[in-house]
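Before we proceed, please read the two lines closing this message. Report back on whether the structure tokens fit the sequence:
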Amino acid sequence: MRKSNNEEFRGICSVLGAILLWGFLPIYWKQLANVLPEVILANRIIWSFVFVVLLLCCQGRIKELFSHLKGGNSTLLFLGGFIISLNWFTYIYAVNSNHLIEASLGYYINPLLTIFLARVVQKEKMNHYQRIAVVLATIGVAIITFNYGHIPWIALVLALTFSTYSLKLRIK
């Protein structure tokens, strides 16, 4: 089924918005270097919650929030929140402590780890071209990681937390 031009345009705008946001976010975090990462994270969590509640109220969907909280999903919701919070904290810490290369490397490792988890946990299949692409990407990331000179712990935490969060979203 072909998407309408309007949906396609909205999709392109969403992608561009995400790219711009992610591109400029380190500059924003860097301006907050004198604020503890824990304080930044706490504010991000609180204000994200407030924004989502207001958005759900405006959309008339606030009951969905309560049904998710009442259902047996509380543990999974908490786990997902913890994992993504750890990811956010690590990223904020990386930027504010001048570990930008490691933070970037984490987002190169992330898709490879996500693919690995999807194949192992969810038994996802890949065609020949996809396997070649993954092998080439893995070689490239391995070279960059090796040339980094030491174990990129921040990159590994970022990749592991985001990949695990992605997997958690798919499993529910």
Observations:
- The helical segments are 5-31, 37-58, 62-70, 74-96, 100-121, 128-148, 153-171.
- The mean pLDDT is 92.
